[in-house]
Design goal:
Residues 6-115 form the Histidine kinase/HSP90-like ATPase domain. 38% of the residues lie in helices and 18% in strands. The chain is of the alpha+beta class. It has a five-stranded antiparallel β-sheet with strand order 1-2-3-5-4, with helices on one face. Helix 1 (9-21) packs antiparallel against helix 2 and helix 2 runs antiparallel to helix 3.
Length: 195
Amino acid sequence: MDFAGHPEAAGKARQYVRDKLGPDHPALDDLTLLVSEVVTNALVHSVSRQGGRVTLALADCWESVHVDVVDDGGETVPHVQGDVFSESGRGLLLVETIADRWGVYQDEAGRTVWFEVAYRRTRKGSRAPCPPQRTSDEPPRPQDSAMRAAAERAARTVSDGLRRDQGREPAGRWRLVPDGLKQAAERLGVDPWQD
């Protein structure tokens, strides 16, 4: 994405990152901050501020995001300033701290400050997050009723099997604690011996 070398380019670059990665991207906040810092540096310290251009390239590589910010170059090479108490000059310090790798190079396209931010992605189909737990004062959700119905059917199936196996020590056969079924049925609010 190309931006004119004007102050509003930093805000447009932040919006571009949010639009491209989406609100749920695990590295969104870090990347938005670092892009803002590096684009601002390009606007303040390069020839791009004199009507030139700043180009932002973003590549999500599954578990890391690679970012290039290309400007029109300048008299100095971007570097980390060591004074954390300075009013300015902390942009590349943030890049050095947050990014996993970063660097600067110059070619015919201009000067490029690049960085990579690694992240962990939840892979589709790997492990779904647990649903939120309902508090006791909340009304039951539709899925609660379905789970309860399934649990009641399971308790009835087990109780029917126990009734058939009376006298054959089913608790031992199924490796059940003798009172376990009764306790489970009580927790569910069902009668395991009910027809």
